[in-house]
Amino acid sequence: MAALAFTDLVSNQRCELVIPPGGRVYPGPGEPKIGVAHPGCPAVADLAVELDAFWCPACGWNGRVSGAWCVDMIRAGRSLRTRDSDLILLPFCGARLVAAMQVRHAGALR
């Protein structure tokens, strides 16, 4: 399993992009999940590369990461694979993630 460190642009804390073997950004039931490990929570946060963001449904952590960097790291970890169908980045704007981002960043938008 790859765990690649980066600094969350919101909290300025160290987080890790977690890429388990066979993992997917949007996993099906029983499949390993690609996501973000973050301080103070054992859960892996959901990654939304198209929004340059991640959000943890377990603890509510809302952070920022370069989606392009994440895609590059995921693809680099799969350089021997011939099928990248699980990297199709469909518009995933989960209402809870968007709502969390709007609340967190409402002051910055004014």
Description:
By secondary structure, the chain is of the alpha+beta class. The chain has one domain (2-109). Helix content is 20%, strand content 24%. It is built from two helices and six strands; from the N terminus they run E-E-E-E-E-E-H-H. It has helices at residues 67-77, 95-105, and strands spanning 2-7, 14-19, 35-37, 44-48, 53-55, 62-64. A six-stranded antiparallel β-sheet has the order 1-2-3-4-5-6, sandwiched between helices. A hairpin with a 6-residue loop joins strand 3 (35-37) and strand 4 (44-48). The chain is globular and about 30 Å long. The termini are far apart. Mean pLDDT is 78; it is low at 80-110.
Could you tell me the radius of gyration in angstroms? 14 Å
What structural category arises from helix and sheet content? alpha+beta
Would you report the number of β strands?
6
Biggest beta sheet summary: 6 strands, antiparallel
Helix content class: 10-25%
Through-space gap between termini? 41 Å
Low-pLDDT residue spans:
80-110
Number of helices: 2
Q: What is the average of the pLDDT values?
A: 78
Shape: globular
Order of helices and strands: EEEEEEHH
Count the domains: 1
Strand order of the largest sheet: 1-2-3-4-5-6
Quick recap of the structure?
The chain contains two helices and six strands, in the order ββββββαα.
Keywords:
110 residues, alpha+beta, six-stranded antiparallel β-sheet, 2 helices, disordered C terminus
Topology:
Blueprint: E1 2-7, E2 14-19, E3 35-37, E4 44-48, E5 53-55, E6 62-64, H1 67-77, H2 95-105
Antiparallel strand pairs: 1-2, 2-3, 3-4, 4-5, 5-6
